Amino acid sequence: MTRLRSLAVPVVVLVVLALVPKLTVDIPYVFQGSIDTPGTLQLLALCLVFGGVAMTYDLLFGYTGLLSFGHALYFAVGVYLVAVSLTRWHWSFAEGVLFSVAVGAALAVVLGVVSLRVGGIAFAMVTLAFAQAGSILALKNPFGWTGGEEGLGTDYTRLPAAFVGIFNTKNLYWLALGYAALVFVVVRWAVGSSPGHVWQAIRENELRVQVLGLRPHGYKLLSFVLASTLATLGGVVYVLLLGGATPDVTGANFTLTLLIMVVIGGTGTKWGALVGGVLYTWANQRLGDASSSHAVSSLPSVLRTPLGQPLFVLGVLFILVVFFLPGGIARSGRLRSALSGISTKRTEAPAVPVER
Amino acid sequence: MTTFVLLTITGVGLGALYFLIASGLSLIYGLMGVLNFAHGAFLTVGAFGMWFVESKLGGLSVLPRFLVASLAGLVVGGVFAALVELFLIRPLYRRHIEQVLVTVGLGLATVALVTAVWGNDARPVAYPGWLSRASTVAGAHVPNVSYLLIVVALLVLASLTLFLKYTRYGLIIRAGVENRAMVTALGIDVRKAFTLVFAIGGTAAALAGVLGNVYFTTADPNRGTSLLIFAFIVVVIGGLGSLRGTAVASVVVGLVQQFANYYASSGLGDLSVVLLLGLVLLARPRGLSGSFA
Amino acid sequence: MSLLAVRDLHVYLGESHVLQGIEFDVAEGGVTALLGRNGVGKTTTLRALMGLVDRRGSIALEGRELTGTPTHRIVRRGVGYVPEDRDVFAGLTVQENLRLAERDADPRYDLVYDLFPELKQRARQLAGTLSGGQQQMVAIARALLNENRVLLVDEPTKGLAPLLVTQVADVLARVSELTTVLLVEQNLGVVQRVARDAVVLDTGRVVHIGPAQELLADRAMVHRMLGVGHAA
Fold this sequence. Notes:
The structure holds three protein chains of three kinds.
Chain A: H1 2-19, H2 38-63, H3 72-87, H4 93-115, H5 120-140, E1 152-153, H6 169-192, H7 194-204, H8 206-211, H9 216-242, E2 244-245, H10 252-265, H11 272-291, H12 294-297, H13 301-307, H14 310-324, H15 335-339
Antiparallel strand pairs in A: 1-2
Chain B: H1 2-32, H2 39-56, H3 62-89, H4 96-118, E1 123-124, E2 134-137, E3 140-143, H5 144-166, H6 168-178, H7 180-184, H8 190-215, E4 218-219, H9 223-238, H10 243-263, H11 268-283
Antiparallel strand pairs in B: 1-4, 2-3
Chain C: E1 4-13, E2 16-26, E3 31-35, H1 42-50, E4 56-61, E5 64-65, H2 71-76, E6 79-82, H3 94-101, H4 109-115, H5 117-121, H6 132-144, E7 150-154, H7 162-176, E8 180-184, H8 188-194, E9 195-202, E10 205-211, H9 212-217, H10 219-226
Parallel strand pairs in C: 3-8, 3-9, 6-7, 7-8
Antiparallel strand pairs in C: 1-2, 1-4, 4-5, 9-10
């Protein structure tokens, strides 16, 4: 009975979200237009994509305890390879997508084997280094493929008609929703499976896992490859949504924003990463909109200037969350019970291996 | 040959810049276990503090203007770093993950704030003409700014080494890098050392910001973040917490970058540095100097 | 009033309830031995007294409460610590190790060099290059430099050759004339030589308190509580 109950909420959420493009509802301040307008659907789709990618990062960091600073690389692979293969090499849509996902997975295996030879800070730095290499590569514009700093638009003639044009934004929205749902399901299933339990054991105490006779390396690699491949898939959806690739998704900054999303939402929880990703993306967009709004521009410049920068507001918000809501939003309800001394291992934030 | 000399000197000059940022990072991590993602923000604050003061001193001639503005940049950076430690890091004592996360948020917020006030574009900076010229050494035209960088970095390295070796706080820091708990078990309040290390690191980063303004001829709000990544790479290659390791690694990274950028192609230098990090870590996970708590 | 009074001390390490309500007193003067088999929580008790692990309960030094006080302030109230494994700073010289430990206006270098003349000779040697026995001397010297009300000493003879064990025991005997000592020790010969009182732990609880000589004389009790200990 509990299994059915635990399914009920996600299913209801999914159904409600799926109905959004059919509803003409105006939510003032939250969205600029009614929720079935292309502009709002675009924003919602973006929120869902990043929510999904945030969940893939949570798999790596929140559940397995692997602090990676290079997760953006796999997302960028999805974004760039689809754009490049369609626009520069004139491949078909199916070919481009399959190629991107395959490369993402293969790269994750190769780089994962290499990076996981070390742990803790060293692992974080190696993943950072590989992502930086990818970023440099994208900016260098090899053979004129990646478009350097300006990025690259996707050749829309090679895309399925259903994804082209502003009136088809609702299809892209459903695609994004489908992606987020897929990631949600896969992550839930993976985390509940027996390798999933090993991941969480590794996060808590890798030494103990070894003592139990298991070899952590294989499990960590599995988590790494799964998370990265799903992120690549997210990149594919993203490039469709945005119509092109830009280098800002390749940098360390992007991985850091994933970290922020996951921490705000609550690491290692069912809904935390999704909520964090959605909220962050929404806030980033709406803060940018708000800065040009009447309400803000009538503020004295000492307030207006910083508030006009979404990253400033988000950065400060993040600091506040870390200080006052350390378990993230998803755990805030359980904060009270945690404070009264009942220690539930799951409510503890994972120990990142930077401890001395 | 002349190219070789030019690349070597400018490479070491670049390494000097990296050392200025990386030295603080290394000490902070070594002593406190905090990966300070706000370190790039200290650089930016120093760089823009200098630019701001300089823009207000239009009446003075170039050299005093430059010196006063640089000093201002250093003070602002150092004080900012100390305040960050006191109000954001210290309250999270022993919660390492949260400390790192706070620095992430602060790094983003500070750069965003600077961008908000002064825009995203690089601002030109005024400095003595000598620094924009080159001198000839063994036939090579070496930009004078490289000499300044090298001399300053050497001075900083020397002062830090003397400080660590001969002062009581230096002793506390050296011991604390090895075993923080035991230092408290001797009755010493390490938290004061923490603030000091942040202040020192912040000042060095601000110095990098000021000299970076000269090296790149502009003050750029995004430079802190991009240089920070190189600084992290340097610190990890050199061995976290080891000043000497950081110095060596800075020079190595600077040289690799210069030579690869020239002999291979531009941009490949950065890639080679990244590869270097990967190789070093796979061979010696504790970095070149092997010191890692 | 006893010098050190421990009441209802609880320590959790991870999920493990390592100390389950420890209670004992340390009377002033002489050596109180903290005994027990491996893993019962002796070292954890000392670390809890030092504030190096999170603890709950009451620890009173001369009537003043120590729980809730940070480690460095506990030390400043007159608690010296000689940890298991010595924990000398390998990258610092012997002299620097001692200098770091200076707390009072007038550190007792005379006493320290009298007890350990070798340390004066090896002043400029890196502590990491010292032998185990020499490192032990540094560790004890550090705690002796200052006038402390109580010294917490954790297995000072661990891993030392028999000759050095005797030397350490002699030092402890001399020190105990100056300061109260709470000594964790597995070597019962040393305990016999220096200890006045004994507190025995078993899986996180105190199971026996009494005069040390009485305990050691009762072979059956020794065997039961301490297992197969090191012979005298």
